[in-house]
Amino acid sequence: MINYKGYQNKKILVVGLAKSGVAASLLLHRLGAFVTVNDWKPLSENKDAQQLLDQGIKVICGSHPVELLDEGFEMIVKNPGIPYTNPLIKGAIAKGLPVITEVELAYQISEADIIGITGTNGKTTTTTLVHEMISKDQKKSYVAGNIGTVASEVAQIAHPGEAMVVELSSFQLMGIRQFAPAISIITNIYDAHLDYHASKQEYVEAKAAITKNQTENHYLIVNADQEELMDAVQHTRAKKVLFSTKRLMTEGISTDGEQIFMNGESVVRLKDIVLPGRHNLENIMAAIGAAKLYGVSNESIRAVLGEFAGVKHRTQFVREWNQIKFYNDSKATNILATQSALDAFKGPTVLLCGGLDRGNSFDELSASMSNVKAAVVFGETADKMAEAAKAGGVENIISVKDVKDAVHAAAESAESGDVVLLSPACASWDQYPTFEVRGDIFIDEVNKLK
């Protein structure tokens, strides 16, 4: 950890706790800042705030009073989940105060090599693959960010010559000022989080921000099959490394349908890759690019791809029961992710879907339901999901209360040889605090089947 002096004796407000807020507060306190923490949850119900209070950090809980801005803070560290429309955040920006997210702190103190990964879909799989490939090559690697440990915590223990592989959301990337990973990846861009972002353009710009501070000494690995994405990063100063699942290229990462090549060199045969699904080919190519740039051998890359079957909550095989295979894809929080999951299975499928209603329709999902023999719908979008399934030709549509009931309804509808797939196409927040909790409930209920 670099002993960063930039925060000594500075008044800094941390808005919003959870893991990233707690980590940022403790780090800033350690770096000599005068830290005030503000969280909406009352102190009596707020274990995180109580922990910080015990450390001598000032805590204000129960609301986000705009009057806090009168106390002369020099910077705001915002929890990524708090929107920029929050009155306190809007007021800070109006005053010209820097508003950053915790990953900026991680960058400022890190001595390790940072590999940053973003995109609408595939971030977690790609992040995990890069980490596994580096680790297989006998190099020290840490997973950080949206998966694993908070980035600013990892940055305090990672050493020079080690890698921090950081999954980054658009929410986090909107709050960077100097953050510049040695290697960055943008897997893809689709409509998502438009309830948070003011527009699709703002969302795309937030994703492209991963490369805005990169220099000629850095690399950007980017999906060449998406014109919108290529336009968004056209002004990067980083060396661009393109990947394509649709055409064979002499430079970058691509495939002839039998092998994956990087700069004309064969890296791995497709038949030796365990991870299923066409959508995962993008993730695999991006991961290969980062691993090769980091000096990982083809042997280590092949070894990982020959055994890596997926990450938890992303098309995760859970169990076979009565010759029915159950898969947990709870991390599919948008339509495209669920379409990709459905495309990965060619046989009869019982789809479990539904969740937070963000106001969008699910018409696009209908065309991907040709193999869906039954749809079990739940949550705020249950009726919309039922309409999409009906439009897709699904005749057996079952409405249930939640994921727990959905498992049992699916088990009754499925037959030998079928797949039961939890792939909600929605965020979990109408019923569950995170998609992980939703997925874990699915796993528990599947494992209880007798």
TrEMBL record:
Keywords: ATP-binding, Cell cycle, Cell division, Cell shape, Cell wall biogenesis/degradation, Cytoplasm, Ligase, Nucleotide-binding, Peptidoglycan synthesis
Biological processes, Gene Ontology terms: cell division; cell wall organization; peptidoglycan biosynthetic process; regulation of cell shape
Coiled-coil ranges (or none): none
EC number: 6.3.2.9
Top-tier EC class: ligase
Mur ligase central domain location: 117-291
Pathway: Cell wall biogenesis; peptidoglycan biosynthesis
Domain Mur ligase C-terminal: 313-426
SUPFAM superfamilies cross-referenced by the UniProt entry: MurCD N-terminal domain, MurD-like peptide ligases, catalytic domain, MurD-like peptide ligases, peptide-binding domain
Catalysed reactions, as listed in the record: UDP-N-acetyl-alpha-D-muramoyl-L-alanine + D-glutamate + ATP = UDP-N-acetyl-alpha-D-muramoyl-L-alanyl-D-glutamate + ADP + phosphate + H(+)
Subcellular location: Cytoplasm
Job of this protein: Cell wall formation. Catalyzes the addition of glutamate to the nucleotide precursor UDP-N-acetylmuramoyl-L-alanine (UMA).
Binding site for ATP: G119, T120, N121, G122, K123, T124, T125
Name of the protein described by the UniProt record: UDP-N-acetylmuramoylalanine--D-glutamate ligase
